[in-house]
């Protein structure tokens, strides 16, 4: 069975920039997801918007749009609607953006959330894991619930 992996905005930024510390693990996971039999990756639509906006410092308009196209082709993109926002605003997450990511991941029944955010997703029913742990085949990586 394919792993259902939900990613946060920082993961997208890591994939987009070889200069970021977590580029290697993020890009490796991204490439594996594009292959047949690879993991199924998902992201919320808001994370695409945020990555597009944040990356404007480092990438041209054309480069950013090309990345968003690749993400749309590779990821399952989950909508952010009023129900998701309601769950997010009432969650225990440290900020609203993390609440949205958590709500989407839980609704999608993700096996894990890939994130480096130390404060986020601590109370989520979906375990958090770093890209390095996932790609590095670390023993006991929390992929099964």
Task: Please write out the topology.
Elements lengths: L3 E4 L1 H8 L6 H12 L5 E5 H10 L6 H14 L1 E3 L3 H8 L6 H12 L4 E3 L13 E2 L1 H5 L10
Helix pairs in contact: 1-2, 1-3, 5-6
What's the arrangement of strands in the largest beta sheet?
Answer: 3-2-1-4-5
- The share of residues in extended strands comes to 5-15%
Determine Rg (CA atoms, Å). Answer: 14 Å
Given the structure, what is the number of helices?
7
Largest sheet: 5 strands, parallel
SSE arrangement, N to C: EHHEHHEHHEEH
Q: Estimate the global geometry from the Cα principal axes.
A: globular
Q: List the uncertain runs.
A: 137-145
How many runs of DSSP E, i.e. beta strands? 5
Structural class: alpha/beta
Rounded average pLDDT: 89
How far apart lie the N and C ends? 14 Å
Give helix % range. 40-55%
Description:
The protein is α/β, with parallel strands linked by helices. Helix content is 48%, strand content 12%. The chain has helices at 9-16, 23-34, 45-54, 61-74, 82-89, 96-107, 131-135, and strands at 4-7, 40-44, 76-78, 112-114, 128-129. It has a 5-stranded parallel β-sheet. Helix 1 packs across helix 2 and helix 5 (82-89) crosses helix 6. The longest helix is centred in the middle third of the chain and has 14 residues, at 61-74. The radius of gyration is 14 Å and the shape is globular. It starts with a strand and ends in a 10-residue tail after the last helix. Mean pLDDT is 89; it is low at 137-145.
